[in-house]
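BUG: 3D viewer hangs when loading the predicted structure for this chain

Environment: internal workstation, default settings.
Expected: structure renders.
Actual: progress bar stalls at 90%.

Input used:
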Amino acid sequence: MRMSEAQTLFAMLRQSVQPDIVDALERLVREAPDRKLGRINALAFAASEGLDEEKVINAFLHASHLGLFDVSWNVLCPGCGGVLDANTSLKTVQSDEYTCALCAAGYEPTLDEMVDVSFTVSPRVRRIAAHNPHQLPPLEYFRQVYWGSGVDLPEGDYESKVEEFVLESLELPPGEKAVISLQLPAAPIIIFEPVTHAAQFLNVEGEPTKERQNLSLVFDRAHRHHETINLRPGPARIVVENHTEVRTLPSVCVANDALHDLLGNRRPFLTAKRLLSNQTFRDLYRADTIDVDQRLKITSLTFLFTDLRGSTQLYDRVGDLAAFDLVKTHFSILNEIVAAEAGAVVKTIGDAVMATFPTPDRAVVAAMRMRDAMLQFNKERGNEDLLLKIGIHEGPCIAVSLNERQDYFGQTVNIASRVQNLATSHEIFATGSVLENAKASDLLAQRGLRPMPQNVTLRGITDQIGIFTIP
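Structure tokens produced before the viewer hung:
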């Protein structure tokens, strides 16, 4: 893309994103080194620029929709932070389990713990080395491709830190064979290959030997080398063969403190759960989220349901047209508040709203703002036509696609809906799981609010559940 075209896209971006954020994105694209433009961590970028997180996320979404960035949905290993799978769409996150050879463990993917959403500058805007990952030097392949944006890698001394645990590394072309000769120290050793995600563990201990020990490894797309091999400290000859169609990068690493310290240095990343609960994402990408057959697990999501009390009488009293306008205005007010609190409206059902939030505290703030906004709206009109009932619940759920719309399924959703049904006008009902959230309880305490508890039985729910009324 010619620079004039990029300038045109940035000019278009200014129509929906505040100028200082667009300026920061434009500087990033023009001036940052290549490694900074692949798999960008939006949260880290916001922090480094001193910008609001939610506004930066929305800016990246608008910029990606215009074609300035490509979105990647990366399945990260919870253990080492490595990218187990990279996808251009959430629809291709299909496996029931992802295995990390480096950690020798399998994980069921969850949208709030394992799926990271990152942004890479489009090759039409600027060509970077990571657009051709198999041409990157081995250390840069690890930095830019294998490790996800959740690992906070050191900037200036990255190479020296890696040298503290890497004994040997090489580039092995497709179909080629090579020999690694080295002295094995008395330590746990991992021969790791990041392209095929293969790892061979060596338990090197006992009396040192002067006899050369031989080992042969084949890298392909199927074998993962999980069985540990016992060797003694001393000379070793490791024959490696590449049976894939691309270059492989076998590295002999010591599983020492330097390796563990590097991988343990984590930072927050933009999760798929958070993005699915982002109103800008739902507005821009409503048709490209989850495949009809997918069932994606979320460990914790907060649901907020609202409804209008006495809406039938409202239609009788003021007429269909006037009532419709009032309800439409109420939807507009609620939508704006949900978006401002990092949430998203999943759907409206009659006069009711179903919304999601990444954390309980944001839902509680949104609920109080909604109640205040409706009270103010009624005050300005001189009546109480719009009486809002609100219910909040947090828990696990499944993200699904229903009626060509990204939706949620599970008992958490059912409980949230029924909690809202218990509320009368102007009340906010929240479950114990919501108020057990430290930020939510601190928020209420700071405002001098003491929720009143009660145990209730909900239709279809076997056990009683603790409900709190937020005054």
